[in-house]
Amino acid sequence: MPNKKIKKGSLPVNVYTEWAPLKEIVLGTCLNFNMDGFDEAFEILYRDNIKNALESEKKQIFKISKQYTIERQNDLDNFAKILTKRGILVRRPRRLDEPRVIRTPFFTSITNAVDSPRDMFLCLGNEIIETPQTNRKRYFEGMLMRDIFMDYFRRGAPWTCAPTPQLSATSIDNVHWSKVKKIHSIQRIETKYDIAFDAANCLKFGEDILMNIGNKNHELGALWLQRHFENKFRIHPVRLTDLHIDGMLMPLRYGLLLINPLMRKKIHLLPRALQKWKMIEAPDENKKFRYKKDHLQLASFAGMSVNVLSLDEKTICVRDEDKSLGDLLEKNKFNVVPVKLRHCELFGGGLHCATLDVRRDEKKANYWK
After folding, report:
1. For residue range 105-129, what is the model confidence (pLDDT) as tens digits?
2. DSSP notation for 188-228
3. Which helix (H) or strand (E) holds 119?
4. What predicted TM-score, i.e. pTM, was given to this entire model?
5. What are the DSSP E strand ranges found in the chain?
6. DSSP secondary structure string, 313-327?
7. Phi, psi torsion values for 9, nearest 5 degrees
8. Which tens digit of pLDDT belongs to each residue from 304-324?
């Protein structure tokens, strides 16, 4: 049943930007999060993020301390309280009771919790899209979101699942993203490759969607999205990093971007309309990165502080450990909400990754005039 806080007749899903007033969100849970099931496909797509571990001591063991999981879950639960107190409706995925073996005709892996719902699910306009996974262990994460999505569907939201990828040994493009400068046309992409991309490859700018392209699977994904939305949205492929784009830049409001220092030499790669926006460069967090010997740092240590969550055009949630970033944003007239969220690099997601916008108070508009 719809929550009592939802106004009767309101759209169950309504998202066009990353910055309009936030009304409803899905917040992840890391209970029974596990490192098992990572494979060559994971190493291909995340190699820039995990290269320190892969190059050391014959590869670090993929493992997570139970204590880290408890601390992370406590922080997620407290984040839910912070958002709820601000009048935002917070929903949570069903918990993973225990990891189970996945077997398909093409691979074997193990299920995982939905710690970062932003990665696999895209709410755009009034529609929910389950994106075609690039990571085998996340193949059935949608099952843990089913009850939430079914509620939205029953209340009128379109619910789409992109073509299911094989994720076989040969269907994922393993060429490093930096070695290919241009975006290929479909005629130049071999038929063996899957349509595969993460929702976190995309950032929303009203009528325009900026989509990071790391390999040929993502190129097929951009083409699928453009065809799916026809004239409703414009998809702009750009090659900035290996996979997720929200560690490289984040729109804070119309006309203003927060950028990773690594973007300094890549501004020319952005669409011309976006190059005109004002940009705030986040403090260089690479200098403070500490490689922990007792576990693998899973996600992008280069960009986690940029992974902020805007509650509206003036209010931004920032990790409490990123105090220098918070001070910088306050100087730029933002209200900063510090949020404790430990082990972001380990679990593969910051504040933006750990959430999925469902409703913002806005209408579609052209912000790239």
Report:
1. 999 888 999 999 999 999 999 999 9
2. GS-TTS-----GGGEEEEBTEEEEE--SHHHHHHHHHHHHH
3. helix 117-120
4. 0.92
5. 22-27, 89-91, 101-103, 108-110, 121-124, 127-130, 159-161, 202-205, 208-212, 234-238, 249-253, 256-259, 278-281, 309-310, 315-319, 335-339, 355-360
6. SSEEEEETT-HHHHH
7. 90, -5
8. 889 999 999 999 999 999 999
